[in-house]
Design a protein that fits this description.
Layout (H helix, E strand, L loop, with lengths): L2 E6 L3 H12 L4 E4 L11 E4 L2 E4 L6 E3 L2 H10 L10 E4 L2 E4 L4 H8 L4 H19 L7 H9 L1 H16 L9 H4 L16 E3 L5 H8 L4 E3 L16 E6 L3 H4 L9 E11 L9 E4 L8 E4 L8 H5 L3 E10 L8 E2 L3 H15 L4 E3 L1 H5 L5 H13 L1
The structure holds flavin-adenine dinucleotide and uridine-5'-diphosphate.
Uridine-5'-diphosphate (UDP) binds next to α6 and α7.
């Protein structure tokens, strides 16, 4: 039997594509080179806790259609991301809001906070002498002033990007929200949460009744001659690999995780703690149970699983996580995209095949739009 679609990759793009194709009466085969389905949202159960194996994932969107759709597959819980920053043992709320300003300066009203920020910003703005901020350090100093920059931004950013703030582009920090209210919600989106029972439930729901094969690498399998098996190909792997790196290799930034079991029910009291000084080599510590357990549930589960996150230089064989946003890579990706546009009956979808950083909701939205057409 010939399939309508061979789908390479069972991440959110591939799984959502298979779901809508099936609904449209099409037959799909999904293959993935990993031993399990779900791509980067896959969770591994350890001590009764869903561990986000490929990085912490928080679903957030303002698109009601996408939100209703994912909730039709699996119910979402009330998790709201409120990361805390630890600078040399002192804790601050994120994103920068009235709680942070109170912890930093002891101010208690928006007016006092604004006066303090304005005073600190004015030094940085004066130093620019009328020109635009040229790098991340100048941008951050003009946005929030020196105290916040040196306590919560400088060293964290240097750890994360492996470069000095003066050598990084200003745009990375442009979107950091500054809030004059006591609101620790990291995202501005209308809807947010984690699937009840974990992300695997979402993937299982999307792929229900669809033929799937794991441990199958497209390029080292019979499926490479996909025409024999399907009318169309949906490819969600790396775009340069599809073209056998003919124009050169794209760079990626990656993260490595050191995960351990802690013999305590509540290790750090929050899902996400950022370490914003060089004192610790990792950028963040994730305590996975707090994504899905609230109140007494935290203590009903006697152990905890925590992951330290280290920003790591990408080498062959590592997991490609974030596209590198510089001129060489942007140009190379454009050239590959031109080649991709000429491939007949092939859909290039998702973050690896498009070489773009996408959150989960936009990936689902893209597939929904494709099927509307
Ligand atoms: P993926 O999930 O990567 O799936 C691609 C799949 O293709 C993989 O399973 C891979 O094994 C398979 N594959 C690749 N090549 C081959 C091949 N040759 N043969 C067979 N199979 C192949 N988004 C949010 O909205 N909120 C968050 O908090 C968030 N946190 C993130 C944290 C990290 C560390 C990262 C990297 C991303 C995060 N994201 C987050 C983004 C989210 O992971 C992506 O939007 C989502 O994974 C995109 O799905 P995808 O299908 O494009 O890619
Ligand atoms: N950032 C920071 N301190 C923090 C958190 C973030 O300075 O505690 C900066 C840092 O430069 C980072 C950027 O804000 O690269 C974006 O951070 P965000 O958490 O939004 O993105 P992610 O780390 O998920 O890519």
């Amino acid at each position: 039997m010939k399939y309508d679609y061979l789908i390479v990759g069972s991440g959110l793009f591939g799984a959502t594509f298979a779901y809508f194709a099936k609904k449209a009466g099409k037959k799909c085969l999904v293959i993935d080179k990993r031993p399990q389905l779900g791509g980067n949202v896959y969770c591994e159960e350890v001590e009764g806790i869903n561990v986000h194996k490929y990085g912490a994932h928080i679903f957030h969107t303002s698109n009601k259609e996408v939100w209703n759709f994912v909730n039709s597959i699996v119910e979402f819980n009330r998790y709201t991301n409120c990361p805390v920053a630890n600078y040399k043992g002192k804790l601050y709320n994120l994103p920068f809001n009235m709680n942070t300003f109170c912890q930093m300066w002891g101010v208690t009203t928006p007016e006092e906070a604004k006066a303090k920020i304005d005073e600190q910003k004015s030094e940085a703005v004066a130093a620019l002498n009328g020109r635009e901020p040229q790098n991340l350090e100048e941008q951050a100093l003009c946005l929030v002033g020196r105290d916040i920059f040196y306590t919560l931004i400088k060293e964290y950013t240097e750890k994360q990007w492996g470069r000095k703030c003066t050598e990084l582009p200003a745009f990375i920090i442009k979107r950091l929200p500054v809030r004059m209210v006591f609101d620790n919600n990291y995202f501005n989106d209308k809807y947010q949460g984690i699937p009840v029972g974990g992300y695997n439930k979402l993937i299982d729901g999307l792929l229900e009744g669809i033929d799937c094969k794991t441990d199958v690498d497209f390029f080292n399998s019979e499926y490479k001659d996909w025409n024999k098996f399907a009318d169309k190909l949906v490819y969600t792997g790396a775009i340069d690999e599809y073209f056998n790196y003919s124009l050169g290799k794209l760079d990626w930034r990656t993260v490595s995780f050191k995960t351990r079991i802690e013999d305590t029910a509540n290790f750090q009291g929050n899902a996400v703690v950022n370490y914003t000084s060089h004192e610790k080599p990792y950028t963040r510590v994730i305590e996975h149970k707090h994504f899905e357990m609230f109140g007494q549930e935290v203590y009903d589960c006697p152990k905890s699983v925590v992951s330290e996150e280290y920003s790591t230089e990408y080498k062959d064989g590592m997991e490609p996580y974030y596209p590198v946003n510089d001129e060489r890579n942007n140009q190379l990706a454009d050239q590959y995209r031109k080649l991709a546009a000429n491939e007949e009956n092939v859909v290039f979808g998702g973050r690896l095949a498009q070489y773009k950083y996408y959150d989960m909701a936009p990936v689902i939205e893209q597939v929904m739009e494709y099927f509307k057409k």
